[in-house]
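Troubleshooting entry. Yesterday's outputs looked truncated, so today I'm pasting the complete records for two proteins to confirm everything comes through intact. If either block looks cut off, that's the bug. Protein one:
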Amino acid sequence: MFTGYRSGPGRPTSRTHGRRLAVPNVSPHVPSDTPSLPNWHPRSERASHLADNAPEMPDPRNAKRPTIRDVARRAGVSHQTVSRVIKGEDTVMEATRDRVMAAISELDFVPSAIARSLTSDRTHTLGIVTSDIADHFFGQAVSGAEAEARRQGYFVIIGSVEETPGDDEQAYLQLLLQRRVEGIILARPMLGEEGSRRLAAAASLIPLAAIGPHADIQGIDVVDIDNRQGAFDATSALVEHGHRLIATITGPLDWASAEARLEGYRNALQAAGLSPSGSLEVPTAGWGLDEGREGVSRLLGAGVEFTAIFAQSDLLAIGAMTALRAHGFRVPDDVSIVGYDDIPVAAFLDPPLTTVHQPMRDVGATAVRLVLDEIAIERNGGRDGDRPPRRVSLPASLVSRASVAPPRPPIRS
């Protein structure tokens, strides 16, 4: 790490990489006719001239932010007229509007969002509560939601809670309501009974949409990926290459998405005239690299024959590839692998991973549109009675790369 600083012309470096260096005492050359002044420098006369003629700068400590009344005085109108111009009302004459806008520009006036929300009952703000914004799945959903909200003239407040949130989720919901957000989007993979109760209570106060495979909750719209079809397509791709002994490494089966992917895997085998075998299904406790390695170890340890693996996440697939190599097997020469998620690194593996792409940015954007639809309906008088929640399922798509090949004789440990 570089800990010194870079010197400019004529300026010696006094510290480099934490070592003090001796700085020679070099005096500048001073012409013989230079006035004998104690602090004279060849540039001092020019600097003094510039300083004497520089415009006086205001003291920022004494600066006062312009108010709506300052704008009104500058434009020669009432502060109510300025307010109507800011709100975009069409009751102000064009010439008057131009004067007000000119005064706003001259004074660098910035309207107070808080004050405007109090008078108009609008904050143009949405809240997002997510599990882990660092996670690619939820990070992409949040990114898509924020982009769509901005496109529609809204800002976003984001809160990230732990996998086992305790009171975090409730605290964030309360905070967002206190900040007077106009709608909330929940991006969490699982909701317990208490979490569902809290969301139902929040949905009675404000438009709310959830991202993920959640059960029906009154008043809450849901946006998800068609995990069943995505898994069907992944398994079918292996079948089409000639594989018949296809194992699967699943995520936690208490997740609805893992259940849906397992069902899609079984459906694809049955559609090809193959019988699913419990010995080829390896459930794990997570979605990560360690679980992928563990899954392969369990398959090999059980002596199960297989020629291909459908790993229900890309991280499971990468862990599986690592374990296979450690046992002397090559991908795809000995074993073909298909993942799920299409994380950015999937295209740069050796070999590049065939996987299922989830359009998570579209999921986030769709959730925002559902919430904004509800906001518009409420502002126009609301609905007559309760309505069933809307469920939107976006399609996943297979991305074919180089980790799948026709089968060779099945492997076992």
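Protein two, checking that the full record survives here as well:
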Amino acid sequence: MRTFYTEKFEAQQIAQIKSKKNIPDIKPGAQVKIGYSIVEEQNTRTQYFEGTCIAVNNKGIATSIVVRKLSVGKFGIERTFKIYSPLVASIEVIRYGIVRRAKLYYLSKRIGKSAKLQEDFAYLAKKKD
């Protein structure tokens, strides 16, 4: 059960994380490039995952996005990222796509050119103003 105090605490935590990291406005259909930290024995490195955002689950500090990347051939890879996690090093929006749905799970059945979305230039123009 969420109370006023938990929501206030989460808002403070989110503001603190946003002051350290640049987290852009992410919406379904956006082409995103996410850098996440991988720990191998004593080394840590950043690996990038680039794909289309097919879902955004807004749950306060536990906000997550589902990103689908088209791999070689006929299959795609879907991965869920918690955007406020310390393992997510960077999030970059490459472009925004035109969509009419909040969840784009129909894209997981498509391959090739049919899985691509048109770019939304109007959203970029509104965002710059």
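Both blocks look complete. Sanity check on protein two: The first helix runs from residue 4 to 20.
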